[in-house]
Design a protein that fits this description.
The protein is mainly alpha-helical. The protein folds into 2 domains: about 10-125 and about 230-255, no CATH class; about 140-210, no CATH class. It is about 65% helix and about 5% strand. It has a two-stranded antiparallel ribbon with strand order 1-2. It is flat.
Length: about 260
């Protein structure tokens, strides 16, 4: 069972994962601290421009981003329709759209869209193996924790296959749902308890095997994958800095609206 779909590798896949975590964390913090509507729109555009370099086809990207677009619409309209402000545009029942609430809603929507785009980009361009190897080499993460996370991720497809096997076995035996009231108890009794018991046994065997192979040792280790820094990391850092610099410059020189602070 595959956790990802086939895709084309781009230069973003070769950026150091630890550097991605640091830059994206700073990216998130900067997005939260920006209260200028014009700057926020530019940052959102810069964040979305990275998605074509994820290596996934356009249709798949549209599928991935559809929940975030829905979140953009719901966040924006919720603030627009029920926000507060002095310059009233439309009032109809409980709906009260003002100039301040309109731009505040768009600001929140673009903020959510920027965070979603950056988070999605990290998930689409970062392999778990490279991430944990980078955290071990650059982030000094102990090997026992890194390999434990990798082993746990490998167990997820096995757990999904066991769920399907258990589901088919129950269907073959002719066991059906008795009613809506007992659905939760039935699911807990028939699926959760067997899967949990099997997962505990398998996790114990993996832990014993890792202990036997000295994964908990503190000695200096060698690595099959050596994750370092290349010119792509410099290019990505320059892009991140350039996005915010150009966003602030364009937001001040060529604003979309006269609103500079939506708070």
């Amino acid at each position: 069972m595959l956790l990802t779909f086939p895709h084309r590798e781009t230069w973003l896949h070769r950026v150091n994962p630890t550097l991605k975590i640091v830059l994206f964390s700073l990216w998130f913090a900067a997005i939260i601290l920006i209260h200028d509507f014009n700057v926020m729109v530019n940052v959102a555009i810069g964040s979305m421009l990275l998605l074509p370099w994820s290596g996934h086809p356009l249709r798949r990207l549209l599928l991935y981003t559809s929940p975030f677009l829905l979140m953009f619409v719901s966040t924006s309209t919720g603030m627009m329709f029920f926000g507060k402000g002095e310059t009233e545009w439309v009032r109809w029942g409980l709906v009260n759209i003002t100039e301040e609430s309109f731009y505040r809603g768009l600001h929140l929507g673009f903020r959510a869209l920027s965070m979603a785009a950056v988070g999605l980009l990290f998930g689409l361009t970062t392999r778990p193996v490279n991430l944990f190897y980078s955290l071990m080499q650059q982030g000094r993460l102990p090997a026992k924790y890194a390999y434990s996370f990798l082993a746990a991720m490998r167990l997820v497809p096995i757990l999904a296959e066991e769920f399907q096997t258990l589901r088919h076995a129950l269907k073959v035996r002719g066991i059906r749902k008795r009613g809506r009231i007992f659905n939760f108890y039935q699911l807990l009794h028939r699926y959760a308890i067997p899967l949990l018991a099997q997962s505990i046994r398998r996790a114990h065997r993996v832990a014993v095997a890792m202990e036997a192979k000295r994964f908990s040792g503190q000695a200096k280790r060698t690595y099959y994958y050596v994750i370092g820094f290349t010119y792509r990391d410099v290019l990505f850092t320059a892009y991140a800095v350039g996005v915010f610099w150009l966003a602030f410059l364009a937001g001040i020189e060529w604003p979309y609206a006269d609103i500079t602070d939506v708070r």
